[in-house]
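Data card: per-record layout.
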Amino acid sequence: MKNKIIFATGNKGKVKEIQEILKDLNYEVLTMKEAGIEIAIEENGKTYEENALIKARSVAQHTDAIVMADDSGLEVDAMDKSPGVLSARFMGEDTSYRIKNAEIIRRLEGKEGDERSARFVCAIAAVFPDKSEVTTRATIEGLIGYEEQGENGFGYDPIFYVPEFGKTTAQLSPEEKNQVSHRGKALRLMKEELMKYESNHCK
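The structure for this 203-residue chain is written out next.
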């Protein structure tokens, strides 16, 4: 029988990434909806960690399972690290990422090379059944491309160019992406925390 992790998201793509990275641990990863938890969560934290903890704590009030949540964002150096924690709300939550991506490219007109530097940041929070908490954070450095490229990602992936691969994160295969992405790295750090928790509580 698998233990459950409820991930505070409705994004199936995200859950797929998480299942892939945690597949060798004995966990079933569920979205909030799959776990039957439907609550509105207001993310008003000032940092990625605060937002991830707000989400995880809110869901943890409704379950005895391990709850995990993430908050991630794109930081564009030429835009004073904007949109940052407001990445999902940049230009309005209902604005399509095609429009958001086009606006970021527009703002970087005339900039070349390192002037287009950017990073994805991801913080993951876990709330365990004993209400102990842990957070992990990771980043991936890259450049903002000149146009959208690739179909594999979501959000800002089509404009985030990774020099070591010569591709955007939307052009990477799922395996490549899990290896280098901010969420992949933060999840592997969280996997270590899960293993620590298990070894401390399964004696």
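Known properties of this structure: Strands lie at 3-7, 27-31, 66-76, 82-83, 117-127, 133-144, 160-162, 167-168. Residues 105 and 146 are 6 Å apart (CA to CA).

See the next section for split statistics.
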